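User: Please check token order:
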Amino acid sequence: MSEAFPCNSCGACCKSIRLSTQTEWLDRGDGVCRYFDDQQNTCTIYENRPEICNVRVMYEKHYQSQFNWSEFVLVNQKACDALLVQIKK
């Protein structure tokens, strides 16, 4: 599990937090995370972000018994692709 999650920093997950009960508490009122910087397209608390926003931590704490890292990355990449479609609507 040495490879990093291949995030392209598109911001789709940060712009779609209303779609999950696990992240809806981060909603700034428009479905976007309260910690998302629209101008920079980045997280303002990245180093201290919640566990739900950290793919590696979520894998290690909750999913490594269900998937190997490569499978988990693929599942998350599919979710990223679906979120991109959602925010473009």
About this structure: DSSP finds two helices and two strands in the chain. The radius of gyration is 13 Å. The first strand starts at residue 36 and ends at 37.
